Model the fold of this input.
Amino acid sequence: MSSSNLPQFNDTAQAFQHLTDAELRRAVALFSLIGKPWLVNAGSALAHLALALRVPLAWAVKPTVYAHFCGGESIEDSEETMAKLAAHNVRTILDYSAEGQTAESDLDATCSEVLATIQAADGDARHAFAVFKVSGLSSNALLEKVGKAMAGGAALDREDEEAWERVQRRVRTLCEATAAAEGRVMIDAEESWIQDAIDALAEDMMSDYNRDRVVVFNTVQMYRHDRLTYLEAMAARAEEGGYLCGVKLVRGAYMEKERERASQQGYPSPIQPDKAASDRDFDGAVKWVLERIAQIHLVAGSHNEESNLKLCQWMAEMGLEPGDARVSFAQLLGMSDPITFNLAAHGYNVAKYVPYGPIREAIPYLIRRAQENTSVAGQTSRELSLLREEQQRRKRN
Ligand SMILES: Cc1cc2nc3c(=O)[nH]c(=O)nc-3n(C[C@H](O)[C@H](O)[C@H](O)COP(=O)(O)OP(=O)(O)OC[C@H]3O[C@@H](n4cnc5c(N)ncnc54)[C@H](O)[C@@H]3O)c2cc1C
Done:
C-alpha cells in the first residue's frame, strides 16, 4: 500500500458519520467542558461526594457523559451502540468492569457477567474480543500477596491458597468459554504491584488455550521501563512451551498512582522518566511484535495518532494487508473517533471498548475518562477542533 492509501485522521466526515447533529452538539459541549481542568476537578470532587452521600446522579449523568462514553446499563441496553458501530465496520469489545470488590459472592457475580459477554459474542461477528480485569475476580490484596510469593518474598497461608485457587478457576472458566465460543479474550493490565500475578495467570492461560490459534491476549504497558524485556521473555517462554502469544500493547493508565506509591514507599518508580520514553517503547514494541506476527498476534490499544499511523505504515512496508486478522486496533467508546472510523474505512480491524453497567458503578470510570482527557490537553483540543470542523462542514452542506 502506498502512503497515499494510509488513513487520514482528519477526515471529519468519515470520523463522525455515525453521530447525529444532536450527538455532535453533545460531544462538542462535553469536550469543551473536559478541556477545563478546574471544572473537571470540581466536577469530579462533587461526583465523589454525591456517591459517598448516595445522592442520585443518574438524571445528570445518563443523558450526558454516560450516553457518550458507555453503551448502556446491560448488554441488551448496549445493542444500539453495537449496531451503530457495526454499521461502520467497527467491532465491539463489551467491557464490564466492577471495581474494588472483595466479597467472594461479588467476584463470582463479576465472573458470571463477563461470561455473559463471552456468550453474547458467540456467533455474532460484531464482537471482536471479550475483556476482563483480574482485579474484578480477585481481591487486590491477594494478587499483591501472590506476586510477592512468586518472587519468593512472602508465603501464602491456607486461606490465601484456597482463595487463589478460586481466582484461577474463574479466569480459566472465562478463557475456556472463549475458546469454546471460538472467540478471543484480552486480560487487561493493572497496577505494577498486582501485575506479576496477572502476568503469570495470563501466560498460564495462553499456554493452555493458544496452541492452535490465539484465544488469550495479555496486556503489556509500555509506560513501564522494564516491559520490552518482559515482552521478549514472554515470547521466549511461549516459543519454548510451543504455544502462540496474544499481546495488547498500551502505554498505561496508572502513571500518577504508580509514581506516588513509589515515592511514598521509597522504591524506584517503575514508570519511564518521560513521555518520549513511553512513546519510544510503545512504538518499538509494536514494531517488534509486527516482525514476529506469525507467533504473536497484536492489539494496539491507543488514541495516539502518530502511533496508529506508524503501525499502518509498518504493516504496509511488511506487506501485511490492512485487514490481516493478526493485527487489531482498539480505542475507547466516545474517544478518538477520527482514528477509529478512518481506520475502519480503510479496511483495518478496529474495535471500541464499550463499557456498560449500572450508572452508579460507571461513575468512577467516567471520572477517569474526564481526568484522562484533561491531562492529555493536546488530544482533547484536537478532538474538539475536529468535532467543530465537522459542525462547520455540515452547516456548509
Ligand atoms: C482499547 C484500549 C485498551 C486499554 N487497556 C488498558 C489496560 O489494560 N491497562 C492499562 O493500564 N491501560 C489501558 N488503556 C489505557 C492506556 O494505557 C492509556 O492510558 C491511554 O490509552 C492513553 O495513551 P495513548 O497511547 O492513547 O496516547 P497518548 O495520549 O499519546 O499517551 C498518554 C499516555 O502516555 C503515558 N505518559 C504520559 N505522560 C508521561 C510521562 N510524563 N512519563 C511517562 N509516560 C507518560 C501515560 O501512559 C499516558 O496515559 C487502554 C486504552 C485503550 C484505548
Remarks:
- The longest strand covers residues 216-221.
- The chain has a mean pLDDT of 92.
